[in-house]
Specification:
The complex is a heterodimer of chains A (316) and B (411). Chain A is mainly α. Chain A has 14 helices and 2 strands; from the N terminus they run ααααααββαααααααα. Chain A has a two-stranded antiparallel ribbon with strand order 1-2. With 411 residues, chain B is an alpha/beta fold. At the A-B interface, α2 and α12 of A face β4, α3, α4 and α6 of B.
């Protein structure tokens, strides 16, 4: 990491830490949501940006984990220390099952993930004696470990911030590891990777399960923030939005999905307060992204940087 | 562009000045009362959402934007019929806009989400549309009161009406497959079967069912009547399919919750004579309050209000009565909630009062579609009441304790 980027990261971190003191609870809440959905978008992007698989079922892992935590905490009074890991485990196990979809590629992969996503939505919606149907599960408490618990949304903001920073670091290590490079290789040319002796299907399966685990973690953070969960969390539009967040922000990067989440949530929640046709703006942003900024916000920043910085001397 | 924020309108200005003059001494240093309204301005239920917003606006224009001697302002937030969005918007209204209380939301599944915000912030919530039974039964929140209706509250009288007035004994129930649809339909099934009626068949369709052919083909031969509980665009699809399949010559269909005012403009004279709804409101109700309301609504918006429009108007009426009774001191949340729970209101839909579980005791009207000559709109299809069940409780004739012990209606 060069000095400029390090400085920029530190400034961003300082801004994130100062946010609750500078902005009101609404903006703090919106930023918390941005981190949570950014994490979901990041999990989708592990497949999309690195392995080239377009998954539309990630809301399933997100929701199964959220439901698991909510049901355990509300109905069985299970403490956070057990409920949260159980949520991640449940989502990850589902990902291990849904991972069979990596046997397909391209449009078939997209179709099978849509179908799987609808199965989960259908269960959440229809099995109302267990999931609460449309009403979902409400009154989820704030997380607490032992006697120490979160008591406000500001405290929760810092918890989420800490978790996503750790995730981002872990993700960075992962994508630079031989495993991550292997994924990139598969995206570039799967047949070549196979001829080099890689078991690409096993590689992709592992990536799918890891990505599901990350989405499950986002689900846990989500349910403790919202304090309720209902079938909307598992619905198709959530999966689509997660992918769009990654694309708008910059697919294949770490910061991109979070920026994209900020754009999507900001448009929806802030612009809608003074402009009725906010959906149209969202549409325009997506179209503009696809046409002129296929690398998303991060791509735009990189282009500007390249234009304004002096061409560097080649290194020794 | 519409800033979605309403200040004083000209024709309310005179009333406002008079009111301000009277109370200028008492409330010299208090600012306006701020109300947050959560409605699906866009999204799948944007049409009822529009009715809700306009009913609400109409009331406050008539009231001169004052209550309890203070100016009233409101901020409308778009929930898009999505609980996440409803939650975020409710938090925005509370934290950014600093509203004194919330009104809304409309979509059933947004209800628990917004109730959550009311619970965590203590800001009172006046539910003027969302009908989930559980809000005023199993998961009550001290800061939440409902001014609209519980789903099964309109279902129970419907079951009795089918048995006693229509003389049906073997009914096929078509229900929309989500919480509201379950609760309305199963409420009717319960009171119908309690009298000795038989369920010929239950047919559940998810919201947005494109083809009602299989539903109609599945109606048993020996059934003597069909009860319909359908919402949204499905209402028109069922209507069209019913006539296209020639069912109107074979069987009788009755709407438990079907042909509301907002969908009637999309229908034609075939609808005349059908039982349209068993509901806490019918636009064709001939009371002085409703005639005054529907005339004003028709003049302002060139159509008749659905129950969503009436419900929002009444929420305005109710909250104003409560604010008046505490002299505008909405900052005292407990006093405001107590006032909401104790005042009685003469609404367009009839007399209203909350029961001990924060749900209104109100009339339920079974209505028939008729073409009437409206003084403002001319010939128009509307719901005309044919039977009034007065003072219906959300527990119908059952004991509340037994009802609560029995648990929610589930398919």
């Amino acid at each position: 990491m060069d000095r400029g980027r390090l400085a920029l990261s530190l400034i961003a971190l300082a801004a994130a830490l100062a946010l609750p003191f500078v902005a009101g609870p609404f903006w703090t809440g919106l930023a918390t949501q941005m981190y949570i959905f950014g994490l979901l978008a990041l999990s989708v992007d592990l497949l999309l940006g690195h392995a080239g698989l377009f998954s539309l079922t990630h809301a399933s892992f997100f929701a199964v984990s959220a439901y698991t935590v909510a049901i355990l905490q509300v109905r069985y009074a299970v403490p956070t220390t057990l409920a949260a890991p159980a949520g991640i485990l449940a989502g990850t196990l589902l990902a291990a099952v849904f991972g069979i979809s990596v046997r397909t590629r391209g449009v078939y992969f997209i179709l099978i993930t849509i179908a799987l996503g609808y199965v989960v939505w259908g269960v959440a919606h229809r099995w109302s004696s267990f999931t609460g149907g449309d009403n979902g599960v409400t009154n989820v408490p704030f997380p607490a470990i032992g006697g120490v618990g979160i008591t406000s949304h500001t405290q929760y903001y810092y918890l989420v911030l800490a978790v996503i920073l750790l995730c981002a670091l872990g993700y960075r290590v992962l994508i630079r590891s031989p495993f991550g490079l292997g994924l990139r290789g598969i995206k570039a040319s799967e047949t070549r990777m196979q001829s080099l002796g890689y078991r690409t299907s096993a590689h992709l399966y592992a990536a799918f399960v890891l990505s599901g685990a990350l989405a499950s973690l986002a689900g846990v953070l989500y349910v403790y923030y919202n304090r309720f969960v209902n079938p909307v969390a598992s619905s198709f539009p959530i999966s689509v939005e997660a992918a769009l967040m990654a694309i708008v922000g910059g697919s294949g990067t770490i910061i991109g999905p979070f920026l994209g989440a900020g754009v999507v949530l900001g448009l929806r929640n802030w612009v809608s307060s003074f402009f009725e046709m906010h959906h149209a703006i969202m549409g325009a942003v997506f179209i503009a992204t696809v046409l002129w900024a296929p690398d998303g916000l991060v791509g735009i920043a990189a282009r500007l940087r390249a234009r304004f910085s002096r061409p560097k001397e080649p290194g020794p | 562009m519409n800033r979605l924020k309403k200040n004083v309108s000209l024709h309310g200005a005179v009333a406002l000045l008079a009111a301000l003059g009277m109370s200028a001494v008492a409330h010299a240093q208090t600012g306006p009362i701020k109300i947050g309204v959560l409605a699906p301005v866009t999204g799948p239920l944007a049409t009822p959402g529009k009715d809700m917003v306009e009913g609400w606006k109409l009331f406050w224009e008539q009231a001169g934007h004052t209550a309890g001697g203070r100016k009233v302002e409101y901020v409308i937030a778009d929930t898009t019929c999505n609980p996440d969005q409803a939650l975020t918007q409710a938090r925005r209204l509370v934290h950014q806009e600093k509203v004194h209380f919330l009104v809304g939301p409309l979509c059933g599944h947004e209800g628990p989400a917004v109730a959550q915000v009311s619970k965590e912030t203590g800001v009172p919530l006046v539910m003027d549309a969302a009908g989930a039974d559980t809000i005023t039964k199993w998961s009550r929140t001290p800061s939440v009161v409902r001014t609209a209706v519980s789903a099964s509250q309109i279902g129970h009288p419907w079951g009795e009406y089918m048995y006693k007035e229509l003389g049906l004994r073997n009914v096929t129930f078509i229900g929309q497959d989500y919480t509201w649809g379950h609760e309305v339909t199963l409420g009717a099934v319960r009171s119908f079967t309690a009298l000795g009626g038989k369920v010929a068949k239950m047919i559940w369709n998810p919201i947005g069912t494109k083809d009602y052919g299989p539903t109609i083909a599945g109606i048993p031969e020996d059934t003597d009547g069909v009860s319909a509980v359908v919402v949204g665009a499905d209402r028109v699809r069922l209507f069209e399919a019913w006539f296209n399949f020639g069912m109107d010559r074979k069987k009788k269909i009755y709407g438990g919750y079907w042909l509301h005012q907002d969908v009637l403009p999309q229908m034609d004279d075939r609808a005349i004579g059908l039982i349209g709804n068993s509901l806490n409101y019918a636009a064709g109700l001939q009371t002085p309050e409703n005639i005054a309301f529907t005339t004003a609504f028709a003049k302002a918006y060139k159509r008749l209000p659905s129950w969503f429009g009436e419900s929002a108007y009444t929420a305005g009426l109710w909250t104003k009565a409560a604010i008046d009774s505490i002299n505008g001191k909405v900052e005292d949340r407990d006093a405001f909630l107590k006032a909401m729970r104790t005042v009685s209101v003469k609404a367009p839909r009839g007399p209203l009062k909350l029961d001990a579980y924060d749900n209104p005791i109100q009339n339920v009207y079974v209505s028939k579609i008729q073409k009437i000559k409206h003084p403002v709109l001319g010939d128009i299809l509307t719901n005309v009441p044919v039977k009034t069940y007065e003072g219906v409780s959300q527990f119908w004739t059952f004991d509340p304790k037994d009802f609560l012990a029995r648990g929610p209606y589930k398919r």
